[in-house]
Each structure stands twice: as C-alpha cells, then as structure tokens.
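Subgroup meeting minutes
Present: P.N., E.W., G.H.
Scribe: E.W.

1. P.N. recapped why we're keeping a running log of single-chain structure predictions: easier to compare across weeks, and new members can see raw inputs and outputs side by side.
2. G.H. added today's entry (189 aa).
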Amino acid sequence: CRVIRQATGAEAGIVTSGASAAVMLGAAACLAGLDPGRMNLLPDVPDGRREFVVVRSQRNMYDRALVVAGGRIVEVGIPDRFSGPGVRDAGVWEIEDAIGKDTAGVYYLAVKQSRPGLREVAAAAHRHGVPVLVDAAAQLPPAENLRRILGDGADLVCFSGGKAIGGPQSSGILCGRADLVASALLQML
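Output recorded in log:
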C-alpha cells in the first residue's frame, strides 16, 4: 500500500490479480462500501443501488467485471462519433440525468478519445455523492497518468501490472479513496 500510495498519490492501494480483477473489486467496493452485510450478499444487492452509469462508446469487454460484482450497466450517449454520421457522443448532462437513487457508481474508460472529460464526469458524479471508477489498464505510459487520473477526480483507478509496469501479466493495481480500497481489500480476502 505504501509503495502504491507513493507512486500514485492515492490515499490507499492494493495489488490485484489483474486490471479486470481491480475493476471487479472496485465495483464491489462501490456496491457495498464498508458494510459487511452488503459484502456478504454480493453479487446480490438487497436494495436497488446497483447501477453503474457508463458512456455507451466506453463499453468494452472488461466492463463485465461490473456485472460479475453484482452491478447493472446503464448506458448513456449516442456513439455516432465512432459510427461515422456525426460528432455526438455523450454529454455530462446525460450522465448526470442517469444518476439516481439506484446508482452505485460511474464507470469511466480512460482512453484518449473518451468524452466527456474525466474532470467533468467526476464533478457531476460527486455532486450526487457517487464515486467514479476508472479503468486505466492500458494508460501507462506515460507515468504521469499514475497521478493525473486521480487528480482529475477519480475515486478508484485500475491499472494493469503486466503492461508498462513490467509485472506479471496477471497483476494489477487498484488505488484511490481509502474507504473504497479498504472495502475492496476486505472483499478480496
């Protein structure tokens, strides 16, 4: 934890068995917090607070980790920026409109073309008291991303340990808010 904190500037961090596992544990942390009763019930969620708001163009094969943890994906936006007919994707207002009493978190894929920007998304989520879970598995290099993504407002960030970090392929890092990392660590044990 100390080494991850030094490298990332996060309040806390843990090593996981891959970036996908970091996403799953981060989702579980958003779903259960530090409530052991909720942890014991996952992937079943006793109340409706299980939704993860995701910009449609940021969907990928790893976001199934949200569902494995017990979440439900709520897509927003129209990805016509990628399909060719225009420049529309998602607006912050669409993310904010999708946040409700059943929202456990916002999932954000940190790639160059992601829109809207992370700072805007985090500000909108935080206005509603909702954490932002960022998948940054392939965002190293540059090394600045270890700190920049948290600085842009992410509550939890997932990095691959097997790419540019040079660790084993089945390693990852989950770092961010101490309470959420503590929840992930408890659920990993």
